[in-house]
Design brief:
Strand content: 15-25%
Order of helices and strands: EEHHHEEEHHHHHHH
Low-confidence stretches: none
Mean pLDDT: 88
Number of helices: 10
Radius of gyration: 20 Å
Structural class: alpha+beta
Length: 245
């Protein structure tokens, strides 16, 4: 199961424009409670001064960076916040926004397996063409993770677009823009993750390899093997061997 990843979008003055549902899950604050405020509202008595200064310097220098800092939930409970912040520039290369991805370090020990927490994820320029596009991407991502629509082997672009009250052309463009892949590849990454989780679960040990693939949203054996190797860089049997090593 993927961890909650809080997303904070601010303007150039670091005032919050938008946060996702995972932000509320982690901090207890809703979007309406934080809009117009600065993320520093999460800081408290035990927040490390050195970390605050490092964050401030990096923001002033407009560079992407990773940091750890003690933040506080709405109920006053402290937690370790592991974060990555990217500056966002407009077409004229002027600073327009900051975008932060944050996880609860008490619940997530290793963030290296979380793509959004990698500094090489590029949000510095054309990756943020309007808040609505950005919000739509995280809505489709949330829909996949929470409702597991990818388990439907006949899932279509139109079905997802209808669920998100948008059109297929725009949804396809947003997925391509933020993932660098087409809609089908985007869906298949979730199916491969599901297969990997099921392969290491005792609950599915009575099923064949393709049986697990069917449970994970694949419907064609040759497509399953091809997609698994393409996305994971190894065959299913190689994955199983490494998982049980």
């Amino acid at each position: 199961m993927l961890p909650n990843i809080a997303v904070i979008l601010t303007d150039a003055q670091r005032k919050i424009l938008w946060v996702n549902e995972d932000f509320t899950e982690i901090t207890g604050y809703t979007l309406t409670e934080v809009v117009g405020k600065k993320p520093s509202l999460l800081q408290g008595p035990e927040t490390e001064k050195d970390a605050i200064n490092r964050i401030r310097r990096s923001l002033q220098h407009k560079i992407a960076f990773r940091e750890e800092i003690t933040n506080y939930r709405k109920n006053g409970e402290p937690y370790l916040c592991k974060l990555v912040i990217h500056p966002v520039f407009n077409r004229d290369q002027q600073l327009s926004n900051f975008i932060a991805f944050e996880v609860d370090g008490n619940a997530v020990k290793n963030i290296d397996d979380i793509p959004l927490m990698h500094l090489q994820e590029k949000y510095s320029s054309s990756s943020l063409k309007g808040i609505e596009e950005f919000k739509l991407y995280f809505k489709v991502q949330s829909l996949m993770e929470k409702e597991k629509l990818y388990l439907n082997p006949n899932l279509s672009l139109k079905e997802v677009a209808d669920r998100l009250h948008t059109n297929t052309k725009y949804l396809s463009q947003v997925v391509n823009h933020h993932t660098g892949s087409n809609f089908q590849h985007f869906i298949n990454t979730y199916r491969v993750k599901e297969v990997k989780e099921n392969l290491t679960s005792d609950e599915y040990q009575n099923l064949t390899l393709f049986g697990i693939a069917l449970q994970s949203g694949f419907k064609n054996k040759s497509t399953f093997y091809k997609v698994f190797k393409e996305i994971s860089g190894q065959t299913p049997k190689e994955f199983i061997k490494m998982a049980h090593a």
